[in-house]
Amino acid sequence: MRSIILYGLKTCDTCRKARRHLDAAGVDYRFRDLRADGVDGERLRRWEAAVGWEQLLNRRSTTWRQLAEADRADLTADRAIALMIDHPTLIKRPVLEYDERVLVGYRANDYDNLS
Question: What does pTM read for this prediction?
Answer without folding.
Answer: 0.92
